[in-house]
Design a protein that fits this description.
heterodimer; A: alpha/beta; Rossmann fold; 2 domains; five-stranded parallel β-sheet; 12 helices; B: 217 residues; Serine Threonine Protein Phosphatase 5, Tetratricopeptide repeat; 3 domains; three-stranded mixed β-sheet; 10 helices; elongated
Chain lengths: 270, 217
């Protein structure tokens, strides 16, 4: 028999599936800020935040919402090399695919963009941009200078990446949108909404305020960590439900299980 | 699925570890309270010793009356326990009871101990006090003192007063009977003691009855 916790566990499988998108107060603010920036005559926009703060899903949502109104493209994974990246850019600009053995002439590409100015406005969203080399970033900047192509660059906020942001974007980027970890209130809403979306009312109600506080303490409000934590909690619950039902209560999640999940994920250790 | 048993064990270890600071905290609090209490107690004793050593005395109006018998015993054992302090002139300096702890004052009093059985005016004083407070210690003291001073009529009177306040004080019955006998009312004394013995089976009363019957008193 399928355990009720199995469905709950699956809700928290980490993905950027737009169906799983949860509208929160903080994410709505970031979304509006980003949408507003797109409409400004800016060359580059930096979307900044620690891993797991919802940058990718925000870009996806923006793409999904604007794809019929604007020429907007989302590059989820960085190109392996410069050649592949410019092939992708070429396809976006010209709607034509270059043969594999050819190389894009960068100067010609810049000129092509310059000629497009005032006729077309293309928005390219680059996720995981910390993986692009400085040389490539410099070329991206030159393309953006044509004012026909606008880049939204999503970067992880770590110490090294802070440096990249400083060196390559600080003087050029006109707008910075920063995402933060969720507050307790936001994280509570996030977990609740996720479960309710899948009609898991009883399970949503079994997570009490104290549980949310503890989960927030362990995950520090990070969405990715929260997903991992919830997945592990429900996985442990599922095990007990199937093998030792006396150890799990349907009306509440025992603190012990949350702590066991935290131990498993290394948030705490013995 | 991970090994839940291992995870459970890990969790148990984690809980035990988590409790350590709590246990240490409790121990520190308990030791702190204990230490403070010990310190305060010592401080009190030090203060007590200090004040006692200063000998700043306040003369009190309170007189303590000591039973002749006690004085006799004290005189008999003078060399042992009251070597340099004859009871008649003894000056006792001490803390003013427990009351001083309640109100926090550290007032010292000087108590003049007087052998009341040698002072006529003291008797008046005690008689007055008895009428005010009906304390049988006072009346019994007077009965005994008068009996010792061979004032049997007064001894009989004060024994009776004691008995009126509390009829169960054996000493008052005995002094009453002795005083009666000394005044020549032997039959009356025998009757009183017989009634008392029937009620209480007191050995002392029986001995006294025997003495009176034999004419020793």
């Amino acid at each position: 028999m399928k355990s009720r916790y199995e469905s709950a566990k699956e809700v928290f499988v980490d993905s950027v599936d737009l169906d799983d998108y949860i509208e929160l107060e903080s994410s709505l603010t970031a979304y509006q800020q980003l949408e507003h920036s797109i409409n400004k005559p800016l060359k580059m926009i930096l979307l900044f935040g620690r891993p797991g703060t919802g940058k990718s899903i925000l870009l996806n949502r923006l793409h999904d919402r604007l794809k019929y109104q604007k020429e907007i493209y989302y590059f989820d994974t960085p190109a392996i090399n410069e050649k592949e990246f410019f092939h992708k850019i070429f396809k976006v600009l010209t709607k034509k695919t270059l043969p594999q053995n050819t190389e894009v002439n960068f100067s010609a590409l810049v000129n092509y963009c310059k000629n497009m100015r005032g006729k077309r406005e293309i928005i390219i969203m680059l996720d995981e941009a910390q993986m692009y080399s400085p040389e490539m970033m410099e070329k991206i900047r030159l393309l953006s200078d044509s004012r026909a192509v606008k880049f939204i660059v999503s970067l992880h906020k770590t110490e090294d990446e802070d440096l990249i942001a400083k060196e390559h974007f600080q003087s050029r980027i006109w707008e910075v949108v920063e995402l933060h970890n969720a507050s307790l209130k936001d994280q509570t809403t996030y977990i609740h909404k996720k479960l309710l979306k899948k009609n898991l009312f009883e399970i949503a109600n079994s997570i009490k305020e104290k549980n949310f506080k503890l989960i927030h303490k362990f995950t520090k409000g990070n969405y990715r960590e929260c997903n991992k934590m919830m997945f592990t909690i429900f996985e442990i619950c599922e095990y007990y439900d199937k093998n030792e039902p006396s150890k799990v209560r349907y009306d509440r999640i025992p603190k012990r299980i949350i702590e066991m999940a935290a131990l498993k994920l290394g948030y705490i250790n013995v | 699925m991970y090994n839940i048993e291992v995870l459970e064990e890990e969790w148990k270890r984690y809980k035990r570890k988590k409790r350590i600071p709590f246990i240490i905290g409790i121990a520190v609090i308990v030791l702190g309270i204990g230490g403070t209490a010990f310190f305060l107690k010592n401080k009190h004793d030090i203060f007590k010793t200090y004040t006692a050593s200063k000998q700043k005395t306040v003369k009190s109006d309170i007189d303590i009356y000591i039973d002749r018998g006690i004085v006799d015993v004290a005189e008999k054992n003078k060399n042992d326990i009251l070597i340099d302090a004859p009871i008649e002139i003894a000056k006792v300096t001490e803390e003013e009871g427990t009351g001083s702890y309640h109100n926090g004052e550290k007032k010292k009093i000087h108590i003049q101990v007087i052998d009341a059985s040698k002072k006529k005016s003291s008797f008046k004083e005690i008689e007055k006090r008895f009428r005010m407070g009906h304390d049988i210690d006072d009346s019994l003291f007077l009965a005994k003192s008068y009996y010792q001073r061979k004032n049997y009529k007064k001894a009989e009177y004060w024994a009776l007063q004691t008995n009126k306040v509390n009829g169960n004080v054996e000493e008052s019955w005995l002094i009453f009977a002795k005083a009666k006998a000394k005044q020549g009312h032997r039959n009356e004394a025998i009757h009183i003691l017989t009634v008392y013995i029937r009620r209480t089976h007191s050995i002392e009363a029986k001995v006294l009855l025997d003495k009176i019957k034999k004419g020793k008193i």
